Amino acid sequence: MVKKFTMAVTGLIMIGFLLMHMYGNLKMFIGAEAFDHYAHWLKGATEDGGILYPIMPAGTFIWVFRFVLVLAVILHMYCALDLTRRSRQAAGRGYQHKTRLAQTYAARTMRWGGVIVLLGLIVHLLQFTIIPSSFYEGGAESPYKMVLHAFGQVWFVLIYAVWMALVCLHIRHGFWSAFATLGLNLSPRSRGILNGLAVFVAVVLYVGFMIMPVSVLFGWIG
């Protein structure tokens, strides 16, 4: 039960991060100055000291945030792997028929989907956060130009679209499971509401994350 609770909390932390990240991405529509300022502000590289300055020294928040996010991902995956191992042990070996209890495609692909999401996240962080200059010259200096360069390529947008679809499938089931674990699926009505919210959040995230890359690709931004 502790591991399921940990998965629920860490999953919601990551969904919260995605919503904030989506908000930041949409600043591309405002222009280069606004987007670059936002990106540098998060890292404490602006004249005002960045986010949470002077509560935290300039540039500190982003590292605390990264630590919490990485810890959430590690705990989430550890609990998922442990629960999967226990589930397989409980199922036993040599049986001839396996009943699928999870009815949705998102639920049935939850485990391998999580691995694909993680691999895509690692590449995404390397490209846009950790070593951006390796993917685009001057990327760290102008995040706006780096994003234009990346999403100006059809193949990259297509891969990103598939990856985001997997992310949102994962979220669609994960959102419902998290609140169910926290005890909010006590009646058919509440389960229906949770299911509707899960679909809504997944759709909002997909549209919110894809509208910017598509706009860059078609020249509506930049």
Question: What is the domain total for the residues?
Answer: 1
Number of helices: 8
Strand content: under 5%
So what's the overall shape?
Answer: globular
What is the end-to-end distance?
49 Å
Q: What is the number of E strands?
A: 0
Proportion of helical residues: over 70%
CATH topology: 3 helical TM bundles of succinate and fumarate reductases
Structure commentary:
This protein has helices spanning 2-25, 32-42, 60-91, 105-108, 110-130, 143-151, 154-181, 188-217. It is mainly α and 222 residues long. It has a single domain, classed as 3 helical TM bundles of succinate and fumarate reductases (Up-down Bundle). Helix 1 (2-25) packs across helix 3 and helix 5 (110-130) packs across helix 7. Mean pLDDT is 85; it is low at 94-106.
